[in-house]
Amino acid sequence: MHRINKLDYFVGVFLTTILNSSTGVPVLFDETENSKRVEFSTDLDDFNVYIKYTTNMRKSKVTVNGRRKKLSFNISFSKREYDILKNSFYIEGKQNLLGLVCTNDKLNETYIAVIDYVDAMKCLGKETKSGSRRITVTRLSAEYDFQCYGVGFNETEYIKCPVDCTKFLDLQEVNG
What we know:
By secondary structure, the chain is α+β, with helices and mostly antiparallel strands. The chain is 20% helix and 43% strand. It starts with 5 loop residues before the first helix and ends in an 8-residue tail after the last helix.
């Protein structure tokens, strides 16, 4: 029996959410050390999703528009991962998405931010001085949306994506 590594856990979190929300069978392919590409069809649409994770959760208390709690995650992308996204990931006729699985070290507080490919590439458009790229995912208090942004974004340029990724995918959660 194989040991389950972190990447398999995060891919499982994402796929379980999808499978509990629709009728579809996923097909896994194309991976790096900490990301996987998943292509699947549901009764609603065909999807092509690049799944990436982070276990680096930051919590802080800030006052932004009267809110006090802030969760923040940085998801870094290697040059190889960026090249895959830029040059070979996109599939015409499918919903091309990034599934960003964000959790803490204990894996007991997990969020999934699903961002459209075009918006994700906007976030990844600029490098840091050291040459890395990242998408930062934040949530203020109990907001219904994450704020996603990349290197060099102004505070107001963030991209919104719902905290409940089943809404983004136009799925209904199935209780069973």
